[in-house]
Amino acid sequence: MTEKETNFAKFLEDWLLSNLDINQDQAQLLKMGILILVAGLVAILLWKIAQFTMNKLISRVERRASAQWSNVLFQGAFAKLPLIIPAIYITGVLPLIFSDYPTWIPTIETLTSAYIALVVIRIISSAISATNVYYSTSTRYKDKPIASFTQLAKIVVWTIGVIFILSILTDRNPLALFGALGAVSAVILLIFKDTLLGFIASIQLTINDMVRIGDWVSVPKYGADGDVIGIYLTTIKVSNWDMTISTVPTYSFVSDSFKNWRGMQESGGRRIKRSINFKISSVKFCDEEMLARYAKIELVREHIERRTKEILAYNTEMNVNTEQSIVNGRRMTNIGVFREYIQNMLKNNPNINLDMTNMVRQLDPTEKGVPLEIYCFSSNKSWIAYEGIQSDIFDHIMATASHFDLEIFENPSSSDLQKLVVRTNS
Q1: Which H/E stretch holds residue 18?
Q2: Among 24, 136, 204, 279, whose Cα sits 20 to 30 Å from the Cα of 288?
Q3: DSSP code per residue over 163-180
Q4: Which residues touch 193 (CB under 8 Å, ≥6 apart)?
Q5: Are strands 370-378 and 359-362 parallel, antiparallel or unpaired?
Q6: Quick check: do 170-264 and 267-284+349-426 share a fold?
Q7: 3-class DSSP state of 276
Q8: How far is residue 268's CA from residue 379's CA, in Å, rounded to a whole number?
Q9: Other Cβ atoms closer than 10 A to 258
Q10: 326-340 burial string, b = 16+ CB within 10 Å, else e?
Q11: Secondary structure element (H or E) that encloses residue 224, with its range
């Protein structure tokens, strides 16, 4: 405390004693109150000046800085620096304010130091948040789980900061508090179990590139099916296709099974894999009339001509006559010709990626008939367009099956049973 400050305090006290009808102790208390009020107003004024100056500096940086990093850093971390100015000022004027009560000074200094430590922690935490904002908006890192690492960094900073604040308030060595913290490490591990598991899972997800922000994932256990919109320390947020949001534990993406559709999105097509059942009783050998009729269909004309020559050559070589060819020789079937028709239809479909697997295959017959499965890839991977392409293919199949003398299987409905009863009674 300077001599001028001492003289001012003495002058204020003498003025109060001479102008007010109070004793020495009352004058000292009133003087302290006045000094606290003045110091508070000066502290607020200094804070406003520092805040104004920092805002001007931030605006100048935003106008001149080309990097987004400096912008988010100034807006987040440096914007809180003015909060320290009042605390530093209060610490400097404590001897003046409490000159008559010096025993109060250590307590006020301790609280002020704890406040400064708290502001420093907030500044560091804001710098970490600025890091998260910068990397989350960066094209290179926006699909990485940056939030998980920044959240863990905040936890570490706040844990260490709280320990230092406690050491300031209790006037103890921070290392001693860290030692005490180690003694209850089992309890801490239990409390932060999800956090630790989430952090480990985040590292595994990042190293193995299992999940990125923007990936379409399906997690049946948690009813999640949609795009990943956030990867955090303990949870991953998924925006479902029904416009709901599912929160899935981060660790479950390592411990449980899930489906990531990124491979499909990055590939040349989206798979179409669907079958349709035909009555087994409608499958038959093709006679000349059927082949003549099928040969009028352009997509199978060449196939029928080629297969007719192959079958004729085979039957001639095996000395099989026309009557015996039904069981001993080779003949075309209507379902085989239809399978070739569908295959050629897919090859001529501009919406099908022919560079990927493209086939029509027959599956094992069941009590519901013999299934024909279409296995191909749509070149358009958009959900709406994909469903339209798939529907168009099967609309065409269902409409043309009867032209190949095939019947599509379906379980009888109530109206079918009613017609059967009426027909039986009549």
Answers
A1: helix 3-19
A2: 279
A3: HHHHHHHHT--HHHHHHH
A4: none
A5: antiparallel
A6: no
A7: strand
A8: 6
A9: 19
A10: eeebebbebbbbbbb
A11: strand 224-231
Q: For 255-307, what is each residue's pLDDT tens digit?
A: 888 888 888 777 888 999 999 999 999 999 998 899 999 999 999 999 999 99
Q: In the sheet that 245-249 helps form, which strands lie side by side, from edge to edge? A: 245-249, 235-240, 224-231, 216-219, 259-260
What is the side-by-side order of every strand in the sheet holding 270-278?
270-278, 370-378, 359-362
Helices 298-317, 334-347: inter-axial angle, 10-degree rounding: 140
The letter for the amino acid at 345 is M
CB 374 within 8 A of CB 274: yes
Write the DSSP symbol of residue 257.
-
CA–CA separation, 103 and 98 (whole Å): 8
List, for residues 138-167, the tens digit of each pLDDT value.
667 666 667 777 777 887 888 888 888 888
**3-state class (DSSP) for residue 309:** helix
Residue spans of the domains in the chain: they are 3-142, 170-264, 267-284+349-426, 285-332
**Higher per-residue pLDDT: 33 or 1:** 33
Counts for the chain of helices (H) and strands (E), in that order: 16, 8
Residues in the chain: 426
Question: Facing residues of 324 across strands?
Answer: none
17, containing H or E segment: helix 3-19
The β-bridge partners of 52 are none
Token match 């630790």: residue? 196
Q: Which amino acid is at 220?
A: P
Contact 240, 226 (CB under 8 A): yes
The fold adopted by the segment(s) 170-264 is SH3 type barrels. (2.30.30)
* Selected residue with higher pLDDT from 359 and 234: 359
Residues 115, 108: contact at Cβ < 8 Å?
no
pLDDT in tens, 241-266: 888 999 998 888 888 888 888 887 77
